[in-house]
UniProtKB/TrEMBL annotation:
Segments passing through the bilayer: 16-38, 260-284, 314-336, 356-383
Major place of residence: membrane
Protein name: ABC transporter permease
Subcellular location: Cell membrane
ABC3 transporter permease C-terminal domain: residues covered: 262-387
InterPro entries per UniProt: ABC3_permease_C, Lipoprotein-release_system, MacB_PCD
Organism: Hymenobacter polaris
Length: 394
């Protein structure tokens, strides 16, 4: 049947069907790679500030500054859970930054790298993350690009922090690095510093911290782990999921998922419709041939198999071409970052790509299944074709 297609109207329609399938699978693979990459980047930025689960002491006020909790025993309890990957201590304290020309209210978040490097390192765009010594509290801080621009601060600049407490305290810090997440929830509010600075300001011993951030080995275990913590940890400990703390961001990501799924269903429908049209045209152009084959004893199933394998060949050719295009484009963007983005609007400086073999296999499987269904539907007409009528068909 390949040779008979050459130069015929069916040949042109077959090419259109192949291109349709190729473009469909290419768009789907690239769309999911970008969506998965975008979701992964946003989630990593959120997790870098709050891990997966955050523990603190129950407090009736809505202040970011809460009563301290004892770290050592609670840490030992948490590390007994096999799904816990790491536990980081933190504390928060509100402050006012004053420079020569500007004044800005911020939240100083004290972190400790005693139990491993901070996840915030991935967001650095200038300078370096402070090295916290074991002997004394470090005066180095990391500020966001937005705060740096508002206060006209750069790496190695100094700034005075005023802490509203009794008695009021003033600290002079040095900007060691600048971070950027693109998320206003963090960039407009947080300054990172040494946890011991907050412990000294609050007159806390080393064993007291503002809270603990728990990072899990698998994000999919968030809900069951949260339930376990809620039921088994002491009643005075508040347990918060990151998805509840930043519900708007996660709801927005979920909405993006639904929109992309609807878009991809439409693409599969268009590719399937083109395949149905192609097989219909092939059957109509070969009505006389079908009549002759039936007159010499060919069964409907044998003729259906001819068109089925022809349609299967078109579908597989489209899948191969489409996957080559999609993987080629994704690889170029992943390694060479060809398409930039405005971080102010998209929260990142380039189009992200994330590889997911499972999604890749599912997309190809769904497209192949839809293509085969599209091939089978028109072949039902073959049983309705009468040999004598078909032979005279012109």
């Amino acid at each position: 049947m390949d040779g008979a297609d050459t130069g015929s109207f069916t040949h042109s329609v077959t090419r259109i069907a192949t291109v349709s399938i190729a473009l469909g699978i290419a768009v789907m693979v690239v769309s999911f790679a970008i969506l998965h990459g975008f979701r992964e980047q946003i989630q990593n930025k959120i997790f870098s500030f709050g891990a997966h689960i955050q523990l603190s002491r129950y407090d009736t006020s809505n202040s970011l500054e809460v009563a301290p909790i004892s770290e050592p025993e609670l840490r030992r309890q948490l590390l007994r859970y096999p799904q816990v990957a790491s536990v980081q201590s933190f504390a928060r304290k509100t402050a006012i930054i004053k420079t020569t020309d500007e004044v800005l209210g911020v939240v100083l978040k004290g972190v400790s790298e005693k139990y491993g490097p901070s996840a915030m390192r991935q967001n650095l765009v200038a300078g370096k993350f402070p090295t916290f010594a074991d002997t004394a509290a470090s005066n180095d801080i990391v500020i966001s690009r937005k705060i740096a621009d508002k206060l006209r601060l750069g790496v190695d600049s100094s700034a005075l922090f005023y802490f509203i407490q009794q008695p009021p305290r003033i600290r002079k810090f040095r900007v060691a690095g600048i971070y950027q997440t693109g998320l206003d929830e963090f960039d407009e509010v947080y300054v990172l510093g040494d946890l011991r600075q907050i412990q000294e300001l609050n007159a806390w011993p080393d064993s007291l911290v503002g809270g603990l951030e728990v990072r899990l080995r698998d994000f999919q275990q968030l809900n069951p782990t949260f339930d376990s913590f809620y039921q088994q940890l002491p009643y005075e400990i508040r347990v918060e999921k990151i998805t509840d703390q930043y519900a708007q961001l996660f709801d927005w990501l979920q909405l993006l998922n639904r929109n992309v799924v609807i878009f991809l269903i439409l693409i599969i429908f268009v590719a399937t419709f083109n395949m149905v049209s192609t097989i219909f045209i092939m059957i109509l152009e070969r009505t006389k041939m079908i009549g002759i084959l039936k007159s010499v004893g060919a069964t409907d199933n044998q003729i259906r198999q001819m068109f089925f394998f022809r349609g299967l060949g078109i579908t597989l050719r489209g899948l191969v071409i489409g996957n080559i295009i999609a993987l080629g484009f994704s690889a170029l963007q992943y390694y060479f970052k060809l398409i930039p983005l405005d971080p102010e609007n998209y929260y990142m400086d380039r189009v992200p790509i994330a590889w997911s073999p499972v999604v890749f296999a599912l997309l190809n499987g769904a497209t192949l299944a839809a293509g085969l269904l599209a091939v089978l539907l028109p072949t039902i007409l073959i049983a309705r074709i009468k040999p004598m009528v078909a032979i005279r068909f012109d």
